[in-house]
Amino acid sequence: MSHALPGLPYATNALEPFIDAKTMEIHHGKHHAAYVTNANKALEGTRFADMPADQVIAHLSDLPEDKRNPVRNNLGGHINHSMFWKIMAPKGQGGGGEPSGDLLDALNASFGSVQAFRDQFHAAALARFGSGWVWLCVKPKQNKLALCHTANQDTPLMGESVAGCGGIPIMGLDVWEHAYYLNYQNRRPDYVMAWWNVVNWSEVAKNLRQARV
Questions:
Q1: Lowest mean pLDDT among 141-150, 188-197, 198-207
Q2: What is the spatial distance between Cα 23 and Cα 79, in angstroms, rounded to a whole number?
Q3: Phi/psi zone of residue 149: left (φ > 0), alpha (ψ -120 to 50 degrees), beta?
Q4: Residue 143: its pLDDT value, please?
Q5: What angle separates helix 101-111 from helix 114-127, to the nearest 10 degrees?
Q6: DSSP secondary structure code for residue 4 in this structure
Q7: Domains along the sequence of the chain with CATH
Q8: Distances (CA, A) of 55 to 86, 113, 144, 206
Q9: CA quadruple 123, 124, 125, 128: dihedral sign
Q10: Buried b vs exposed e over 81-93: b needs ≥16 C-beta within 10 Å?
Q11: Is the pTM of this model over 0.90?
């Protein structure tokens, strides 16, 4: 079972003006595609080649030593981006607005308010030095939500001892420069603020329900 590049759930220009079409074309069609190709190459011929991606990435230490970093970087990138495309949608077509229902309750319980959550998420996105991601995770044993950020293509699914961040991710923002540089150059704060206009809260809520099962 080789891993495959998922299609986008919308046109490459659908998230404009917040994320431009050219960035989406390069980000999805070049960067994500390369992660998939390189992950399959790294796993080829191993007993991990037919395992689901999340199971492989959660047991990196079981991989042959020469496979760990290629799998960490590339399968991690595949997992992260596969979520990223889904938790966005065109503004007015599921993107933007405010969280509701169980997700709203969970955010209020964990952060005090949605605005406090946004402020802390924004701060975490700016605190990530260099390339990486900021995450909203479910902490299963604590039954609450938490924020963290990871370097490069690390994911909380790798565990705190590996990624410095653990839990089940339900929302993640890519803060690699290739995610925003064509439109925002070095203005990461502007990119983060604009991104709220395309967050698909229904998909994040779905991820929360699945994480709690």
A1: 141-150
A2: 19
A3: beta
A4: 76
A5: 70
A6: -
A7: 21-86 (1.10.287.990), 101-212 (3.55.40.20)
A8: 20, 34, 23, 20
A9: positive
A10: bbbbbbbbbbbee
A11: yes
